[in-house]
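Data deposition worksheet. Section B asks for the primary sequence of the deposited chain exactly as it was used as input, without tags or linkers unless they were present during the calculation. Section C holds the resulting structure in token form. Section D is free text for depositor observations; keep each observation to a single sentence. Incomplete worksheets are returned to the depositor.
Section A, Depositor: J.P.
Section B:
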Amino acid sequence: MPLSEHEQRMLDQIENALYADDPKFASTVHKRSLGPSRHRVQAVALFLVGLALLVGGIVAGVTVGGFPVLSLIGFLVMFGAGLLALRGGRPSLKSVDVGGGGGSAPPARKLSERMEDRFNRRFTEE
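Section C:
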């Protein structure tokens, strides 16, 4: 069901406000929403390689002590591909600069300072 004209205008206003308030975040979100990421394509290819190893290990009958080692390797490759697809190339929380501006404090400290400032502003404005 398509959006009405009013809903579309509101959505455009929200998008424009986002670009005006935080263009870096908006461009990051926009880049991520454009089709499959490189990590997901790699994960699919890796998954297919793992599946080939899994099936190929059973067909080839390569065993060590009665255990299909090649199939186990294939399963582990498939599992790793699944983890890669779930992660999707997102940066870890440690590498995100939430405080804005450079500094020597770790990002977690900057986040706590910002939260504390916001909390204090709420009570000083009232």
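Section D:
Residues 94-126 form one domain.
The radius of gyration is 24 Å.
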